[in-house]
Specification:
With about 250 residues, the protein is of the alpha+beta class. Among the domains are: about 10-95, Phosphatidylinositol 3-kinase Catalytic Subunit, Chain A, domain 1 (Ubiquitin-like (UB roll), Roll), CATH 3.10.20.90; about 170-250, CAP Gly-rich-like domain (SH3 type barrels, Roll), CATH 2.30.30.190. About 20% of the residues lie in helices and about 25% in strands. The chain is built from four helices and twelve strands; from the N terminus they run ββαβββαααβββββββ. The strands form three sheets. Strands 2-1-5-3-4 form a five-stranded mixed β-sheet, covered by helices on one side. β6 and β7 form a beta hairpin. The protein is globular. One of its GO terms (biological process) is tubulin complex assembly.
Length: about 250
């Protein structure tokens, strides 16, 4: 009988994602600990542009110390010592070519699309564009692009389903990597005009937000200045969280 594995910790983990070209890790995502490392790399491929079959993933602690490498591909994400707020660093051998891509000081030779399509290199080799088209690589591979679009659509649907489960008036706790844990009340759940995707509007118990519920002239909810904020559904946990006292009220 085949061995079975299960995740004994909480089902999801919130991490920041960095790459060699973007070491600060501004991307913040939520992953199911029940997926395999191979499945994780497919998701990271859509986020970073790297190739899952040449990708190496490392986990760094909140103090930016290397914790482990995620291997083998058959292992579950939840079998590694990974926790909320950690950083997932993606390394791809193709990232090395970025070191040679600064052409700002090089005089450029430009061709029109028509000229480029007709041009051939030494020994009658096809142009790179022709090679990619003939071998169905990257954006010229309709099946691969279709899979990427389907994956993106599934993630958007998962985000929407999670967002719809978070209702206005609910008490919540917000955990965003790189920021202190904040408590508040859900005031809005839905799409917004200033960014794509599904967002949760929160009125914090303390002035730890960025707005008053109005962004770029549109009001989504009302609260005092600096008490409002918008976060992704994966950063919000709904529960019986007592209201935190605002020390400013005692002054």
């Amino acid at each position: 009988m085949a061995d079975s594995f299960q995740v004994l910790t909480k089902s999801y983990v919130n991490v920041s994602i960095s790459t060699s070209g973007n070491p600060s890790g501004p991307l913040e995502r939520r992953f199911d600990k029940g997926i395999t490392i191979e499945q994780l790399k497919v998701k990271l491929e859509l986020l970073t542009g790297g190739k899952s079959d040449t990708m190496k993933v490392e986990i760094y602690s909140k103090e930016d110390a290397l914790v482990c490498s995620l291997e083998p591909n058959s292992a579950l994400l939840g079998s590694f010592p990974i926790d909320d707020g950690m950083r997932m660093h993606v390394i791809d051998k193709f990232d090395l070519r970025k070191e040679f891509e600064d052409t700002s000081k090089v005089e450029k030779f430009e061709l029109s699309e028509e000229e480029y399509a007709k041009r051939q290199g030494p020994d009658s080799l096809d142009t790179l564009k022709s090679y990619l088209e003939k071998n169905k690589v990257g954006k010229y591979n309709e099946e691969e692009m279709k899979l990427r679009e389907e994956q993106k659509k599934r993630e958007e649907e998962e985000e929407k389903a999670l967002g719809e489960s978070i209702t206005s008036g609910s008490r919540c706790e917000v955990k965003v990597p790189g920021h202190p844990t904040r408590r508040g009340t859900v005031m809005y759940s839905g799409k917004v005009e200033f960014k794509s995707g599904w967002w949760i509007g929160v009125k914090y118990d303390e002035p730890l937000g960025k707005n008053n519920g109005t962004v770029e002239g549109k009001t989504y909810f009302v609260c005092p200045p600096k008490y409002g904020g918008f976060v992704k559904p994966s950063s919000v946990t709904v529960g019986d969280f007592p209201e935190e006292d605002d020390e400013l009220d005692e002054m």
